[in-house]
Amino acid sequence: MMGCPIDLSGVYGLSVLALGITLIAVGLAYALGQMLRNPRFNVWAKTEVFQVFVTFVLVIVTLFLVDSLCTFQYGALTSLAPISVEAYEHPAISDTDVVADAAGGYLKNLAYFAHIAMGNSRAVYGGLEKALRYSRSPCMPAWLLCMLGPNGYTLAPYRGGSGWIQVANLTLYTDTISYLTVLAQLALLQFILGGGLAVLMPAAIIIRSLPFMRIFGGGLLAICISLLIVYPFLLMAESLFWNPYEMIGQENFDGLEDLAGKARDASHSDDLTLWSGGDGYSKLQRYFDQVFLGSSATFMSSTFLFMLNVLVITASAREFGRVLGVEVDMSRLMQIV
Amino acid sequence: MMRKLLLFVLLAVAACWAAEPYEWQALSIMAVFVAFIVLVILYMLTYLANSPEMRTMVSSEMYQVIFTLFIIAIFIGVEAFSAEVIGPAFGLDFGAAEGQNQIDYALEVTGGPDASDGLIAYQWGEMLSFANNVVSPLGTLSALSARCSFLGFSFGFAGCAGLAVPFASASLAMRVLSTSLLMLNSQYFLLKLAQGFFFPVLLPVGLFLRSFHVTRGAGALLIAIAAAFYFMYPVGVLVTKGMADMVDYPDPDIPHFEAPDPTEAGEILGVDLPPDVDCNPFDNDYKYTKSAMNKLLDDDFLQPMLFHFMIAGLLNTALSLMIALSVVGGLARLFGAEVDVSALARMI
Asked: Is A31 an interface residue toward B (CB < 8 Å)?
């Protein structure tokens, strides 16, 4: 599990220290203004005191919320939501996991689901590639013990499978994008909970109070706050109310897992015969039914929801930025995503 | 009880979910109530800090709480309207059952993983028929070759190789058909998301967040997403389907190609292929390719197929999503957020 490696009590201390340093600097500026009888210094110092107070409150509230992600138990929330912890098995999420761990566990469950969906597409793709290269040239005439040698027809009975390969190609592409998106989300969560952002916040308080650095410090602070609060919260809410495993049904997921397992099994020699035999194509069609389900469910869970999450983070950062007096435009980030 | 009380204090919105069933109206009003209490506490603190600026700010936030209550009232009205007026209207014009709301009927129309009817089941059936009757046999036929050798001389015959041209087109068509099917499956899951997550969860959370200045943008966006995908998206699905239904296209008359049966090797042990097979590799005549192309370009097959997959499948799903996303953009601006939803639109 991911955990919350950072000791936030240290960050609290750093924030208080940053507040102290900033207040001293502002106090010195005020004293200088009084000494030089320059009203500009005094106005600046008064404005800064209010801004420092606002920033400090925001940071403390943010740190408290982040701290609660690392202390609040997930089980207390699941008892209030329709989806229970038992729904997550890859890896299992326990009632006693803290919310940050559970958010990571939820993403790992999504990654497992996407991996299984990808395994399915790969299995049908690989099986088809093998099958469509299969050809046979029956000897003739059989009643003369094939005395005429290699005369006759060469038949590639499964060459038509290349039409299905187009389908497998599409689903494999969709699944791979979804899988990579979940892995990127896991990395993002690790980055957020890793502590770097929380450490940046006290620095942002100081930077923001320096002359000419308000935009940089404010923007940094807005981005830190929105990422630290909004993203884990959204993941937690999604995990409580949206589960792709339950959405496609256990029977369908078992089918997906079974075929993906066959594709992973190196000793499995059924690839060629997977499509041959009396019901070769009907087996293939049954598998494709599952593949479609897996691909669309993983696309919605991993890619579409992630895009919405990034949108919400963008909107939050903009509002936090406005409170702090800067314009934060994260729409570029959205476009990169 | 104590835990729930603590939850109410610490995580009030989440605690609201304790109510069964998950009635969004009660949750939303509770969320706004909590926001109101928080603002009252802040208002009292402004006297402690003797800050008239903060007091003015908190007072203006109180108006936002009232506006949020107004939003809740509008949503309650819209939901009732959709159940009482739009629902029966759909019942008359689109075939919804009595008591079905827009999202239930959109789900029914789209179909689902185990549904035997609906757009997904229909397109899956047509795609299977196309694959079994056209793509698979055409592929087998285009790969069919023959050879003849005697005393060191040998001749190869590939009279069916020309069928690779219609086969390539048919294979590419499979990709388009599967894209349509994948989009319809995604539409089904998006409707389920709207029904089970966006509206009952994101809406109360959004209303709560919208009550505070610093989280107004996120809250407004969540409200916009919840409302657009719960009300407008299913309506978009139904309207686009209704538009498609107005055009009276029959089911595609899918042609059939006869290839040697891959499961019966004995059939081709002789010199001659079975008589009903659609190509003879010894015969280099162009007629097989021409005949195949004519079958594929037949109006009774091609036009209905294009309509059912390109219009009813691809265009309509994209159009419904575009409608919902444009509503998200408009509602978000109305409720106080500035977001660029074009990135989501590009995903389509």
From this structure: no
